[in-house]
Amino acid sequence: MALSTSSAITLHINGEKHSLPVDHRTTLLDALRERLDLTGTKKGCDHGQCGACTVLLDGRRAVSCLQLAVAAEGRAVTTIEGVADGDRLHPVQEAFLDLDGYQCGYCTPGQVCSALAVIEEHAAGWPSAVTADVSPEAGPPELTAEEIRERMSGNLCRCGAYVSIVQAVARAAAATQDANAPDSGGTSHAADAAVSA
After folding, report:
1. Less packed terminus of the chain by CB within 10 Å, N or C?
2. Residues sharing a CB contact under 8 Å with residue 118, sequence separation 6 or more, in sequence order
């Protein structure tokens, strides 16, 4: 008896359920773009090396070209289409616009999704490869330009807008930090990184 090579799945994307039959070999990227018409997520290298197809799976970044659609069933998928709150842009999107963190725009959806995860990872105290003190008592590292560059290194920009991307991530991180601690009064390390990047 031959085994079936397709399944009916339900994907939870940007707060909505989408039921569709898919071949087991279909990537999440292809399901998003070709089956659900969510074309904001871009196909770049199709080998998981450029980051253009980055989405959030349960809040963690993932390159959707290497993620099978069937493996994403039951997980919360956030694409660039789900980042803004209606007509109100997310602070990360606003920072990318204000600081020209894009040029042709092709990599921008993946950059924005990755930046969202970077800000969350940093706030949770996750170290990176350039974090000097990784001991638990050290707390979150300062979000310097070097930290941001390392944390965003999985996303390539063929236009070379890296300086503006680092500044945009720093500004968005500072806005998020300020929103979470409205009585802090001082400038954050992320804001300092935006100036020095």
Report:
1. N
2. 148, 151, 152, 169, 173
